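Task card 7
Instruction: Convert sequence to structure tokens.
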Amino acid sequence: CRFKKGEAMTTIPVKVKWVKEKYDVEVMVDEPVEVFKAQLYALTGVPPERQKITAGAKKIEDSTDLKTLNLKPNQLMMLIGTADVLAAPAEKQVFVEDLAPEEMHGMIAAGVPMGLENLGNTCYMNSGLQVLNAAPDLIDSVTSIQGGPNQFDLQQNLALSARDLFKQMKTAHEPVKPFGFLTRLRALFPQFDQQGEHGGHMQQDAEECLTQIMQVLNSKCKVNDQGAVDELFGIEMDVRVKCAETDAEPETRETEKLQKLACHIEGAVPTGDGGSKGGTDLITQSIEKSLQGTLEKMSPSLGRLAVYNRTYKVKKLPKFLLTQFVRFYWKQDTQKKAKILRSVKFPLLLDMKEYCTDEYQSRIEKYRAQVLKKQEEEKEAKKKQRTGGGDAEKKPDEA
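Output:
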């Protein structure tokens, strides 16, 4: 999904009928038709090349400009096409637990990590550990921790358990049982030791657990003489704050440091006809929403509490960008925390440039130009090697 700087993406909620089903789709009219077709493919399984789409009497071609259709909210569109049928696998599927020892050694040599066994509602902890295990620089720092357990330093004990666990995961031939780490985690953070009425341990919040683990590792591990997590995951945000109720106060700027980018998502809003509209479909929409916020504080010019708008821009990106989908919110009518069950898609390559400050964008452009130049030079050098320094391409009278 591409956004032009300074412009908002225009979306129109429509209903698309395919066979007997109706789907609520947010049509991004500023994007080419292929993006719309990709959305329909994700919903129906009908490949773009087989899709025939109509809006009223108008047939939508690949070259159609969606803005010219003048789509209306909740307009009904038609999709005709046959969905892909998943073919049976040509070979029998083999699971990890069925592999022979020599095959397991091959997987380990290829860098395929072993999983962590669930010790009873511990998937929240396991998922956080696997996120950290995907950052090799952090793992190198953690596995180089020196020293032994200290009964007076529970953070040190948890960091040492992380060291031993990540080392074990590197060479394990089967899923690892993280008993030691779990015991130290619960000793340091008793909230993860809560038990239900039947005696079993309760499920916990993965983001809370990951945050606590990161704070411990940040204090006990160093990279470039800095806390390892701050150095590898740290994000610097340029924050502009402006009073929304008066122009008498000048805009202020401040820097905010984060270890992860919180991506707020919204669920679809039910409509009177049984359908729904709106909602977050793409991570880019979620990031856009997260870069805007409000707060209420005392206004010196008004002499009372006032609403202030906060606008965020990335001032510095980390080596490893950690994003968190904020799915929980407080439901006023039930006075309980509710979860937004919505699928949010994200690309394999996420370009963060458009969310950065102008100064940082200039640095990114300069770096990319240098990388592109180097790639062209390497390509040219390889071409000359293949042609014997370029002489082989010259005509005899030019040689």
